[in-house]
Amino acid sequence: MKKVMLIEDEELILEGLTNILDWKELNMEVVHKAHNGEEALRYWKLQPVDIVITDIEMPVMGGLELLHEIRNIDKRVRFIILTGYDEFEYARKAIHLDVEDYILKPIDEEKLELTLRRAYDKLNEIDRKKAVNIDDEAGWLCFLRGSLEKEEEEKYLEILPKIAVGQSVYGGVMKIEIESLQTVKISDLLVELQKEKNLRVIYLSSDSLFILLYTTDRDENEVYKFFLSLQNKIESTYDVFTFISLASPFNDYKFLPACYREIMKLQKYQVIEGYGSCVAPGTIKNRKSEDISIDDSTLRKMIFKKDKEAALSYIEDLFINNVKKNSAVEDIFQMALQIAMILQNIKSEYNLNDRKNMQNLIEIIDRIYHAEDLFTLKTIFIGEIIQIIDYLHEDDSQYTPVIKQIMAEVEKKYKEDMNLKMLSYKYNMNASYLGQIFQKEVGCSFAQYLSNKKNGDAKDLILNTNMKINDIAKEVGYQDTSYFYRKFKKCYGVSPASLREMKKY
What we know:
Layout: E1 2-7, H1 11-20, E2 28-34, H2 37-46, E3 51-55, H3 63-71, E4 78-83, H4 88-94, E5 101-104, H5 109-132, H6 137-145, H7 150-159, E6 168-176, H8 186-194, E7 199-205, E8 208-215, H9 220-238, E9 242-246, H10 256-267, H11 270-273, E10 277-279, H12 281-284, H13 296-304, H14 308-322, H15 329-349, H16 361-370, H17 374-396, H18 401-413, H19 420-426, H20 431-442, H21 446-464, H22 469-475, H23 481-492, H24 496-502
């Protein structure tokens, strides 16, 4: 039976989590309940658990800090994060922390159960591999990251060949296209690679192998050619496609964690290069970082005009024509993040977030960082745009003429002092009745609609200009900068200053 710890600072939610599922039926047991990370860590040290379900923002110690603390002790434990839209910045950071999944509040019972079952299976798989062989992925990953105790580290060092005098070691990760593994087992590839002289191959996961080449050849270009020939051999023999990223050479295993970090950083270039490619520090050193221009207003107009063909052609042009092979990978992810924010702005403005099949911002960003190529990235946004246009078209037919007029007036005059009372006088209607109609047809109050419009334009200015935040607040109609900060964070889950920092990411 797997042990579970629940961490939530709100007592009502904590009790709800305790009673929402039949834990016994899941073969699990809730052994600890805590109200903050510090309390949870004390419980953990007394009795470790297999699965941790935690909120992000809590007093004393938050969920991400707790995750770091426990990960330093145990890499096996599975984490499930509870989050709200206003905690987007925290959740974005958690993408890189091996989190099992994110459950948005209010908690979806079905999703929580599915995530727990998946965590249960993953724990069993980790335990099975560890029982069979020391060459288990969890152990090797800890070793490569430099997070093992010295005694444990020595066990893995004994398995690796000694580095001879005058030898250099080149590390690389071979990422394998899962779809091409239909008729071949990854163990077959591992055995094939081990036939090569001076190679040590380590199984990391179902689609990744870590490779170490021991050589006296100091010519990095020749080493690069060797890995290319290895890649070509795998492709021609097994019809399996791979992507390889290499690191700078080292001559002492104490540099292995730095080598692994460099390799994984270059793995991101798969999104540009695709399978069948190999990258090394020398192949990307001349790439320059530069902004890829996104015309926010043009894309928005295409979507609002419901011109699918034009909008999809614009996205196609961004990803295929503007993104060149010499682009830095950081520019690609920055561009994708900007598009995600533009679409999120539209969804918030027209209250589409809760519509069927509509993904939230956290889910979109998670997909962005797991995309394997430009086609996959492009497909994420094509699907979102089609969905948004379909919902806008569906909603547009439901608006009465007076609501359409008010929405058009907001578009033109939102910077001015506007309120429902003034508009009701203009259209000769009762203010309360007009408010009810607006809420019913648009899905939010007039004040919220106006706020979404102001914040949307503010977001564009933050991302696309160097204007000061207080000047942006005034530009979109907020005279009180503090009030603007509160409304903006409520809308996007991040402060204006944090959003501008994300632009540099």
